[in-house]
Structures are given as structure tokens and as C-alpha cells.
Amino acid sequence: MDLVNLAVRFLVELVGVAFIGYWGFTASDNTFVRVLLGAGAVVVFVVIWGAFLAPNASSGLSTAQKNVLGTLVLLIAAGAFAAAGQPAAALVFAVVVLINTALLFVLGGAALESVAKIGRR
Prior knowledge:
Elements: H1 2-26, H2 31-53, H3 63-83, H4 87-107, H5 110-120
């Protein structure tokens, strides 16, 4: 069950990236600004996630801290998607993120720590 929850977390992360990109591409009527915001927001999201929140990131954060901060970043993605005119989908996404995070804490971090160890080899 723990590995299934981690797989769901990975999918949620990918959806978060897509939501941030969607927000950026719909945030302006100017094509240049749309491309800049869409691509730029995705790059910033991915870099922050990879540097600080990924299981194998050596940011000095504990697994619990990464889970909490990752959840906040994903909820920001949900908010961006809602601001882009998709509030129902954003709400469903936010609920999935919160349930997934709760399960990460309830089920423990054994599988997540195993994934982090694989990345450090």
C-alpha cells in the first residue's frame, strides 16, 4: 500500500506541474507573456521540487518536512489552476493531495526512505 501511495504522489506531482503550466499559459492575452509564464512557472516548479522536495534531494530537510512543504507547493498549484478558471478540478486535486499526504504520514516513510536511498547510490 505504501508503494501505491508513493506512485499516487508521483502522479500528483506531475499533475501539479501541468496545473502550474496551464495557469501560466492562460494568465495573459499576450502570446509572449503566456509562453514566458507557462514555461517559466514549470521550470521554477520543477527546480524547486528537485532541489528541495524530491525524496533524494540533499536539502537538509527531513522526510516529514519535505512532505509538508511539498503538500503546500501542490496546494499552490491547485490554487493556480482554480485561478485559471478550473475551480472544480482544482478542488478535487487539492482533496487528493491532502488524502495522499495524510496517508504518507499514517503509513510511515519506510518506502519513501527506500526510494531516497536508491537515489543516493
